[in-house]
Known about the structure:
Layout: E1 9-13, H1 19-26, E2 30-34, E3 40-41, E4 48-49, E5 55-56, E6 59-60, H2 64-79, E7 82-85, H3 91-104, E8 112-113, H4 121-129, H5 136-163, H6 178-194, E9 198-207, E10 212-216, H7 223-233, E11 240-242, E12 246-250, H8 258-269, H9 273-285, H10 301-315, H11 334-337, H12 381-397, E13 402-412, E14 419-429, H13 443-454, E15 463-473, H14 481-490, H15 496-508, E16 512-517, E17 520-530, E18 533-543, E19 546-552, H16 554-566, H17 568-571, H18 573-587, H19 593-609, E20 619-622, E21 625-630, E22 633-640, E23 649-654, H20 661-665, H21 671-674, E24 681-688, E25 691-698, E26 701-706, E27 709-712, H22 726-739, E28 747-751, E29 756-761, E30 764-769, E31 778-781, H23 794-805
Parallel strand pairs: 1-2, 1-7, 7-8
Antiparallel strand pairs: 3-6, 4-5, 9-10, 9-15, 10-14, 11-13, 12-13, 13-14, 15-17, 16-19, 17-18, 20-21, 21-22, 22-23, 24-25, 25-26, 26-27, 28-29, 29-30, 30-31
GO molecular function, one term: DNA binding
InterPro entries: Topo_IA, Topo_IA_2, Topo_IA_AS, Topo_IA_cen, Topo_IA_cen_sub1, Topo_IA_cen_sub2, Topo_IA_cen_sub3, Topo_IA_core_domain
Keywords: DNA-binding, Isomerase, Topoisomerase
Amino acid sequence: MSKFATTTSLVIVESPAKCKKIEEYLGPGYKCLASFGHLRQLKSLKHLDIANNFKPTFEVVDDAKKQKHVDFLRKEIAKADEVILASDDDREGEAIAWHICDLFGLPIETTKRIVFHEITENAIQSAIAHPKTIDMKKVNSQIARQVLDLLVGYNVSPMLWKFISKTSENSLSAGRCQTPALKLVYENQQEIDGSPAQKVYNTTGYFTNKNIAFDLNRQFDNETAMSEFLEESANFSHAYSRTDVKRVFKQPPEPLTTSRIQQLASNELHISPKETMRCCQTLYEAGYITYMRTDSKKYSSDFLEDVKKYIVHEFSLEKFINPKIDSLSNANTNENKKEVTKPKKTTTSKKTSNVPPPQEAHEAIRPTKLAVKNVPDEMSAREKKLYKMIWETTLESCMAPAEYFSFTSTISTDIDGIKYTLNSELLDFLGWKIIKNKETKTAIKDKEYNYLLQLRQGQIINYKKITAKVTLKNNKMHYTEAKLVQLLEDNGIGRPSTFSTLIDKIQERGYVKKDDIPGKQVACKDFELEDEALTETNTTREFGAEKNKLVIQPLGIIVMEFLNKNFEEMFNYDYTKNMEDDLDKIGRGEKVWYKLCEDCLKEINKCCEKLIDEKKCEIKIDDKHFYIIGKHGPVIKKIDDTESGKKNNVSFLPVKEGLDMKKLEQGEYKLEDLIAPAKQYQIHLGTYKAEPLFLKKGKYGLYATWGQNSKSLSCFGNRPMENVALADVLEVLERTDAQSSSPSESGIIRIITNNINIRKGKYGDYVFYKTPKMSKPSFLKLDGFEGDYKTCTIKTMTDWLKTTYGV
């Protein structure tokens, strides 16, 4: 070999969107390719050798594209001088790295494994300069998780098909974490149904010549008691008192974990957990934020030093820096002290030879560069909003508490224990709240504060008026997606990285629907006392209206009640949490992975043995009509009489949505109240191949139509139409295109960036280019490109496109 020859290091990541930046940061001698996620799968129970410690047999994912990609990677690995595995730094990523070694015959003990938590030049170079090897404890934990999910899904789900219904595509399913997630929504509905709201009165007194509102500390629950209190109030001596003024500190928000960013985005930006994680993935791959799957509430010491400088520069006072900011550093965490297995020493480029070691511990989600307040316009509107929220929350978390002067005022009544109260605050120092300027000094509030401060203790205060209005107490509400995320975390169900998938899955299965709940009209008698005269006002108000809440569907209730009855031990919250804890122990090498699988299978078998006497689930309406779960969801089974000796005719009638399952089970519905009128369901999703694309629901479930074409969407099972997005349908249609043998169809050959990919066309391969701002894509010829555009580096391709087409 010539002394001028260079070695080629092949870096393998999970997502192709990272490749371009990584190649730029590492320079010549490095090539970056993607695995496109998992290469292999554990397909079914047949692929588990249970008698041999649950030994799994993995197969390449059953997809033509994946098979071709495996062949492509095999050739590239064979050509490379060394392979560096750079899958994500979590159990799933560790398993992907192991699968690559196992599939392509790479030595597990010596193949380089690098980790980084942000896609920046320093992070990438540092990771390359300080490689380690695959952590088999993490791999075993992930294998155990896969086997457990397989055992539960493939043993329990068929029980649903047998005793409830074998629906389209066997869409009824139970899951190790999916079912406890459904159980949370089910139990919430039980509480709503079993705890009717109570009418009570909220009473507000307006006192002093400033007409300042004070709230009464007692809620009356009937009209008589309320009116008597107000009549007596006309003659009460209302004496004023207050507490001493004290300084109050309002703490900044905590750093963003995976769970918290999903909750915050749902509550503040109205973005679903699933969409939040997708946006975070894009921002991470573009180098704008750190890794988004984390439960850490700490930052790197280097980042905290940058924050301190930024705060002083922006606000000119060190007082704005959180006095406990150093406690946010992950420099001293146990994770950062762990020993790292070092591979054999290898040669590194000059570019990376003197780089300090990478930060081992995960960080909270944060911007990679504080100077970048906003991401460029090429990012989507949601990605821009989410980045702004991340940037603001990160900075706020590092800043000093907001400071207030505060005291509580009290106005007595002549009845012991009943009084009016008001908490007054005066802003003294904005602290972290300066970022959004949420708190500003208002003249009215400041005057009110100073006025109450000057009143004498024991001074008699006259009321201007006292109002009492009806409200509902203990009016339980349905969960938002953000609330469900919080409950999943509180109960130890799954991991934060899986929360969005769990919430999406129970909706996809048709168990739960995100819906608006209409309020109830309540007759109210309100009171007002003014100038010793008591007046009554009869009115009607709406209570309990909710928007975008998770509502359990009849199918979800039937499935959950079956599983509660027959598999209660498997799906209670403690069992699920303990299993997650055991998976963590496996990841630390404290437990043998297949022992956990043995315990789980024993529990499944014990539950299944009880099902011998179980009957098929159906609810009798009358002698000829039964409510059942049909192939495509709930229906009324109708049995028509025939001549003696002949088999009865059976037909199926559509069912109305929003039925009360308790009323149904107790026979409180008439048949005509259950049957829905026949109608054609249709939603216009967008455009496909220059034709309007419609989502429709017919006799055999969901399907898509465009022009004269149609495609069954039975793969969506019982998913409500409202939960099917344009992207979901396009994925199915494009997958069908890719599998088509017709030369007129096109498929993606290689993804270059988020906006650029190479496709197969009728007249040869071409470049497909479209940014979010472009209404139509551009189709660019590959004529004149020297080299193999299927295997060249990402940088080579992007440089050529920029020179040739200016993109």
